[in-house]
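Work Package 3 (structural annotation) set out to generate three-dimensional models for the target panel prioritized at the project kickoff. During this period the team completed the workflow that converts sequence records into discrete structure tokens, so that structures can be stored uniformly alongside our sequence database. As a representative example, we reproduce one entry of 537 residues exactly as it appears in the project archive.
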Amino acid sequence: NRSGLRKQWYQRRVRGQTDMYGAMAYCNIGFIQSIMTFDRKNINQAILDLDASLQFVQSLRHKDGVISYLMSYVKNRDFSTFTEVEKHAELMYAELLLIRAVLTFAEDAENLVSFVKGALKIKTCHSLYKEMYSCLALNEAQRISATLENTSTLFDRELAGGIKMGWGAFSLGISLLPPKILGLLEFVGLRGEKELGLGLIKEAEEMDVLRSFVCANGLLNYNTVLIQYTKSSAYDGALVDRILAKWTARYPDSMMFDFFSGRRALISGEVAQALQLFEKCETSGIDWAQFYHLCYWEKMWCHALLLEWERASELALKLYRESRWSRTLFAYLHLAFQFTHESETEGLDKVAEDIPKHQLRIGGKHLHIEKFAIRRARSFLKNGKFLCLPALELLYVWRFLPLMSRSSLSSLVPLIETALEETKELAPYHTPHPTDDWFLCHLLLAVITAELGDIDHSLSLLRTALQSEDQIALDHFYVPYAHYELGCLYMKLSDLAQARAHLSYAKDFSSKVKSYSLENRLLFRIHSALSELSTSS
């Protein structure tokens, strides 16, 4: 109960008790509520509580003298001079500051100044974690050294787990970013290493300390959610099964672990089981509706994977009406699924007209996926209420096609082939740019035939499409996506030179076209594929 936690925390502060972890628990609940709701009142209250907690924890941190402060710029501080409370305060300060940085972005998402302030806070957090982890790693190395086997433990078990979790999260998170962003971060001293990050988070989870629960959720999120969207082959099924077995035994009624069990079933192609687990989450009795919106989102894609377009459309509409996360995207999803479900388009023109009205801005910029949705909505209205295979395009963009059953994939082939024939034979065509839709049909067919095991036919379809890449009028993003798919196919065939050539072409495509739809989404995937390619070569 958040109000109860808040009352206890303030009472203890008045009595002068150093209840840092009570402050952290309360602030975490406020942070989650703020991010889930994006309600201005919740965000402002969470910021006030975080600022009070930071001030409180700051009063408990080690006080450096002038010389020690200046020396900290050239070498790490000596944590052996810190009391236990001061060590915990150092870690707690870094954790609270990181949460405060994220809320700085949410506080005024349209303001670039807020974005810069948040970035500076993250840089401070990174420096604190880096310093603590360097000292922890050195201390652990000394303790296992034959010559220094009597070296005392510098950090207790809870601190060690927290430090490993924090530094591991930074290392993993930064390593997943595309090179364009990585270059900027490395310029200011932020570097990532995926294997180190994953290893540290796993260690912290296995230590069974206070933060192990957070580590378990982070590892499950990485392996069951993030990997799908980056097309990484690093899915660790054994780790996922071990964590789920361990933590569901401890918390059998936990909605989060039921949710991740659903995600595990989904990425394993067990769509019906995934639906059951997501529906079970809806009976958890949690007060925040936003947790249920996560389930609606996953259920929507499950129904789309089962080609149940009407049910997918209903869930998208439910999200549009109830959630504030991205009403622009939810409205377009509703339009795309409903258009695919039936040829009757009555009422969809009003949906398309409303799509641009709810566009968000983060850090002063519009979201790429929302800009894509708005462009599609405008095309729908401009071209007589027509879009070419919009639901299949979305399944491709969100990387759900690889999760579809062979029977469902096979049933999509005639649908795409019919649309492809229309681009060549229908006169006049639905739009002024039939080549764009012709290219999309080839791209979708290539992905599906590859999933069905016919890699040679998939390669042929992509090569045929790319022969007409200069004729695309509007949807230039199909070209780098096609090169990316070619690169992935050549990786499967162990032709690493061709794979690298196509992936590099896709990565540098923005030099040919100043900007294109869904660029950042593709760059994440290319970065992941090139990282795997470097490991293989």
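The CA atoms of residues 224 and 327 lie 25 Å apart.
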